[in-house]
Design brief:
Layout: H1 3-7, H2 14-21, H3 40-46, E1 55-58, E2 63-68, E3 74-79, H4 87-98, E4 109-115, E5 118-124, H5 132-135, H6 146-166, E6 170-172, E7 181-183, E8 190-192, E9 199-201, E10 208-209, E11 212-215, H7 222-227, E12 229-230, H8 232-248, H9 272-280, H10 291-299, H11 319-333, E13 336-339
Parallel strand pairs: 11-13
Antiparallel strand pairs: 1-2, 2-3, 3-5, 4-5, 6-9, 7-8, 10-12
Helix pairs in contact: 6-8, 6-10, 8-9
Transmembrane segments: 6-23
Domain Protein kinase: 50-303
Pfam families: DUF3403 (PF11883), PK_Tyr_Ser-Thr (PF07714)
Amino acid sequence: MHIHCFYNMVFVHFIYFIVLLCFTGSRASKEDLELPQFDFHTIATATDNFSSRNKLGEGGLGPVYKAKLTQEESIAVKRLSKHSGQGVEEFKNEVTMIANLQHRNLVKLLGCCIEGKERMLIYEYMPNKSLDFFIFDQNRKVVLSWQKRFDIIMGLARGLLYLHQDSRVRIIHRDLKSSNILLDDELMNPKISDFGIARIFRNNQSEAKTKRVIGTYGYLSPEYAIDGKFSVKSDVFSFGVILLEIISGRKNRGFHHPDHYHSLLGHFEVLRCIQVGLSCVQKLPKDRPEMSSVLPMLSNEGVALPQPKEPGFFTERSSVDIDTIIGEGRSHTGTTFTITMVEAR
């Protein structure tokens, strides 16, 4: 199927069919979305029957493949793992979350494939892979000049501001990390991806709490990791970690320094971007700035920067300490804790 012909297809009420075909027991909302569908044969052919040579990586839902619709046109296919215990719910969540979002710094969802037990999401293809592919590699990091790193920081900030403030609903991503920031082909513009565990905040809701904490150690805010509380400030914390990783080229998790035992968050001194990052990763949510304040702080040298307080996870904890925290979270909140280990693609 040629992509241009595909775009001219008559749109169907995709979410409605998901409700009927996939998600027994749930009801369609009044905001059912229209999303084009690909057939399984087209995707299987385009991925060379899901060949390992075309595998781009492994996400929370399952593997992601590069697919060539034509010689010039490629897409990315996220295939739901048949062994994923929570995959169907996360699949539904990702579709309903981003199908109507339009922003240059969010990855674009092009369609889906639902046939039999197959569940796949079709995205625009990002040939430069993810941010961690560059910033943590000694050879590839030289491609990113300071100006390019700053452009990536600004693009990420704009995309996050859109989710928190400018989209039709307020969206908390909950799993921001360098491997979820994809880079496009020409200017390496950043695009936020992987909305499988994102949540919508409606009306005047400012904070929520969950007994099931899911995320990536090193990017989780203290209040979310320990108490299951999340808000826009949880995403701000993760943004601050990514900002510091972009500047330093070092991972927050596993950072070591010969002169002290601080984590990456406790290592930096005050410069503009570093100070903004440290402001975002402050321990208490009330001390972190809104994204509407972060953008001016980054782009306008005339804006006074607040002196950041102690960051969350300022001191690197041993594995014993981490187990203690998780154990305390379970005993007091009933939290189950799922941690994703980050590896460069």
